[in-house]
Amino acid sequence: MNAKPDWSIADADELYRISGWGAGYFRLNADGNLVVSAPLRNGKTAEIAMLDLIEGMEVRGKSMPVMLRVQNLLENQIKLINESFSKAIADSNYRGKYRGVFPIKVNQQAQVIEDIVRFGKPWQHGLEAGSKAELMIALSMLSEPGPLIVCNGYKDREFVELGLGMTKLGFQVIFVIETPAELPIIVESSQAMGVRPVIGVRAKLFSRVSGRWNATSGDRSMFGLNASQLVGVIDGLKAAGMLDCLQFLHYHLGSQIPNIRDIRTGVREACRYYVELVEEGAPMRFLDLGGGLAVDYDGSRTSAIHSRNYALEEYCVDVVETIQSVLDEKGIEHPTIVTESGRSTVAYSTVLMFNILDVTGFSDASLPADIDEKASDLVHNLMESYRMLSDKTVQECFNDAVYYRDEARDGFMRGQLDLRTRSQIEQIFMVIMAEVQKIADRNPDALSEPEVLKTMLADIYYGNFSVFQSLPDAWAIDQIFPVVPLHRHLERPTRNSIIADMTCDSDGKIDRFPENGEVSRALPLHEIREGEEYYLGAFLVGAYQETLGDLHNLLGDTHVVSVYINEDGSFDFVGEVEGDSVADVLSYVEYQPNNLLAQFRQTAERAVRNGTISAGERQHLVNAFEAGLRGYTYYEQ
Ligand SMILES: *Cc1c(COP(=O)(O)O)cnc(C)c1O
After folding, report:
1. What are 346-356's pLDDT values in tens digits?
2. Quick check: 367 and 432 in contact, CB under 8 A?
3. Are residues 109 and 249 in the same domain?
4. With a 6 A CB cut-off, is 459 part of the ligand 1 pocket?
5. If I label 316, which of 403, 435, 518, 584 is the partner at 20 to 30 A Cα–Cα?
6. What's the domain range around 623?
């Protein structure tokens, strides 16, 4: 075995913080493999090594990269939020219920919505739609009345009439008014169709929250009604004789709210609106807090933006108790509490799995074999820095080395330094940096900016995936996702790395990793071994990533495989969605694969006529082209 006594599973867990972000769903087993610990319906858990799942996929012809969905985790997240609210409600003698809805925009994939509807049935977990297309999904997927269908977003007449039709069928459709312009459409259409709809209002709170999405909250938020617009809607409903339809108050402070205090402040302000609506005479029944329940991506359990300083139970208890205390003061009936948790519902269940194709090392430089007496001064100066290097001089030598390296680059630009000299200088420079790193590892205060060095020495691991397609938030908004090897955790990872993807784009990389509530610019990984695959997983990627992804470099959708882990610990591949082929992505950008093939055939045929290639060679080329069109857009073995 490769087990080294100086490295244990506990060290690996601490390094990658798996116990922190894994929420009990992911852990390392004694063999050094990363396992999914899947909650079962009988209350137990079953563990499956991710490598076993990869093996199962490869047998089924699914090569990397693969988006893995573990349905048990989604099922459990839905169960947890419903049970946690039920418990908080029972414990505090709250006299209302909880009803969850899933906001479709967070993951619109048919398989995911199907799963949510199915797993949510015991609790009548509903859906939230923010557009016409999403409403169509909600109306057809929730095939029986019961769960709430909350309609946010701009609603035109078509949208409203569809919802009203479903109300007539007994479905619990709620029309949340976001702008004053929607009111006349809802009033006129419902009168014309003879339906009494349930109407909600979206309040614009002035409470501001910390975190990345804080622009959704506060006075300048783009969404919701301000106080005077709210009065206008109340008066409009009164005038139409429809104030009895106003039963629902909604707000949404933004996604990923890391600080529980902001959640409480928001609820308290919303309760003030709720009280006022009741006093205006509206028969209020529902208070909808929107989303915001955060995911602890970095495992630090702090109020840092990628984390959260509360657990689900605390969230539920705080919400229930805050509402209760404000409304009890006024003697108002407790509403049904609605939340629209998207991120925390789906983030856990999806893992992007990919293999490493190649590595460019930066930390293995060695000194040039022979340094000429007559070599450039820069070479000698650098060698002097190297000899001077010690714990005491480390910062000075680091600064000098960077200076000489930059001088050498300038000299090369001006034509004063040749390629071989520049190469020698870069080599010596990297040797110095590696030594500096060793000193910095021993003595963390040795350097003023240790991260700079880490980035400079980080090896580039080339991953078989596209950041733009599968992890767009890592590129667009510097979202952090935990990235962890799926195996080899009995070995100490010795390389500091960043991960580049398959696009030829300098932004196509992952170079921000969680480290103790802060961001590290490099990730420790294992040395890859000849002839052996090295697999990594990017975790907590179930929310927002799939439809925000794009076709940069025409790398298409990955394969998606859903598994359900059974009570006997066996697992079923319950759904496989084939990733895009090259022909698929070409047709998305309006090429006709058949025409491309025909054109290519002609080009090859001309070459045969000119005598450049033989007819047999032509056939070979055409076959390769055809196979290419059918193939996966990612690297295939
Ligand atoms: C995006 C959104 C949500 C989902 O928020 P999460 O933080 O992902 O739970 C809920 N409600 C509304 C109105 C939204 O726009």
Report:
1. 999 999 999 99
2. no
3. yes
4. no
5. 518
6. 592-630
